Amino acid sequence: RWFFVRVVVVVFGFxxxxxxxxxxxxxxxxxxxxxxxxxxxxxxxxxxxxxxxDVLIVLGFVLCIVSMIPLIGWILGIFAIFYxxxxxxxxxxxxxxxxxxxxxxFFAPFF
Length: 111
Hints:
Blueprint: H1 2-26, H2 35-44, H3 46-67, H4 72-107
Helix pairs in contact: 1-2, 1-4, 3-4
């Protein structure tokens, strides 16, 4: 039972950054739930997407370890989580922009 929950969390967690970027770009909530298009966009940049995801997981793990240090770690953790969030948004925003340029480049002859 817990294995299924973990698999669902990983699959949806993997797609959420592109879904949010899709919603932000189109300004319609319905586009955040177009799973086929989201997965196709992830496939276009899967290598960079995995690297960004892995880097953020490692940095998050390091941040958890640092946050265990009393007082100094707590203060550092507050600023580090803010910075880590900015880095994550930048990574996935850049990947989304790359996806859009790849889609335009692929379909450019048809425009």
